[in-house]
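Readers outside the structure-tokenisation community will struggle with the description of the input data as it stands. I therefore recommend that a typical entry be quoted early in the introduction. An entry of this sort, consisting of the sequence and the corresponding backbone structure tokens, reads as follows:
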Amino acid sequence: MLAWKRTSDPPWEERSLGDVVEQCLRESWSRLYGYAVSLCGDREAARDLIQSSAVKALDTNAPPREPAAARAWLFRVMRNDWIDRGRRATVRAADREPVEPTEGPWAYEDARIAAITVRQGLDRLEPYQREIIELVDLAGFRYAEAAEILEVPVGTVMSRLSRARLALLEAIEGGKVMPLERSRGTR
């Protein structure tokens, strides 16, 4: 009986640019999408941003050859693409429609209420505050990775994150977010 040996993927440093970008996109899709939504404030625009950023990433000649660095690099490409779009656009942030944070399979109603409350609080923050919370707290980047993506010192990431978390807490506890209550009949 012949046994088939499964071949593994080539080492990261030997992969083509397309393979590197594709793997980064596959492994980081949900984080990229969440970050793109936080930047754009709109799901459709977020999908367009990811697509545009992937094309830009493929146009580069030398992506990082380490998985963690490549992931941070892809987020930075997307952020820079978003900044470039913002420079060209004349649409004011106040004109955009807020994102409804009601998607996703939630196991418990309390968790869903908490998630919606946090999303509403995030929508009340300044874009730079929302961005740092999305990167560190929601996407799970370390301070150094977030600093690389934002192209700022680590200390700046730490101070922005601290102020953004305080602003989020104030938005939630200060009455800027409409509180939700459990449905009748639960618990």
Confidence is low (pLDDT under 50) at residues 1-6, 90-95, 101-107. Residues 101-181 form a domain with the Arc Repressor Mutant, subunit A fold (CATH 1.10.10.10). Helices lie at 17-40, 43-59, 67-88, 109-123, 127-138, 143-150, 154-173.
